[in-house]
Amino acid sequence: AARLLARGRSRTLGVMFTVHQTFHSDLIEGIYPEAERLGYDVVLSASSQGRSEAKAVEALLSHRCEALILLGPEAEPAYLEELGHRTATVSVSRRVPRARVDFVHSAEGKGIRQAMDHLVEQGHRRIVHIDGGRGPGSAERRRAYRAAMRHYGLEPETRVIPGDHTERSGIETGRVL
Question: What is the pTM for the complete model shown?
Fold first, then answer.
């Protein structure tokens, strides 16, 4: 380990995640075996209501992580740009235009289209979209939902309910429905 550090290598990946995002645990589960296969250790640092993303990221940097994987970062683009200059950084689920940060995402729109195709094939017509607010991928999912409703001639039935990615939001949205 001392030789690696002397060469500027720690063989450590830092992963910043959000506590209330259950999907992040699935991603982390996939990161571990790949990191190990490549000879890296993984250090986790969480953001939450009482702990900012910046604090979570700085904790990772204090562990001399060679690279960072940010799961659904919501930080300002300028901060992410600055971070990209400090170390190799990958943003998962959020594109940051002009930032020096790599970007990985899922096919949000395709997933919504497939779900909508299935629901319409099953005869459903009153299909509600529970919105993810400003969360990563939310705008793409919202656009895909509206486009699918137009495609199927269901535009008058279009209904988007505001929400976010918290358990509380799910409970409140369930009450609205």
Answer: 0.72
